[in-house]
Specification:
By secondary structure, the chain is mostly beta strands. It is built from two helices and seven strands.
Length: 131
């Protein structure tokens, strides 16, 4: 199975835990529940663990392929949350292995004003039987 290398980073799972009550430069408070876009943070998240999704046996046996898009939040704790998964090409059952893989992803979180923050991310997965 081939899956596209990570173009951006991401996650899934439990709701985002609240950020600690801290402040940015000159005491400027950062919103406790904010989720930032990638271009609004000072430091991008860094992948620590990103296992690829497993190619489903049923799909391999039927030579099925798929493209799956995942949109999610990388939390301030480096986990993943709020995954929205959409199969853009292929059988909708391809969403399950993507969801499972995303649940295992871990990151060094993004930072804004020197503090860890949650950030939006997306990742496309291509399930292809070609070597």
């Amino acid at each position: 199975m081939q899956t596209a290398p990570p173009a951006s980073l991401g996650g899934i799972g439990a709701p985002i835990a609240p950020l600690p009550q801290t402040s940015g430069p000159a005491g400027t408070p950062l919103p406790l529940d904010a989720v930032y876009s990638a271009d609004a943070v000072d430091t991008q998240p860094e992948a620590l663990e990103q296992p690829s999704p497993q190619y489903p046996d049923w799909a391999r046996a039927a030579s099925e392929t798929a493209v799956v898009l995942a949109r999610f939040v990388i939390t301030a704790q480096g986990g993943v949350a709020d995954a929205q998964i959409r199969v853009t090409e292929g059988d909708p059952r391809f969403a399950a292995p993507v969801r499972t893989a995303l649940g295992r992803w871990r990151f060094r979180p993004a930072a804004k004003a020197g503090l860890p923050v949650a950030v939006r991310a997306e990742q496309e997965f291509r399930f292809d039987l070609q070597p």
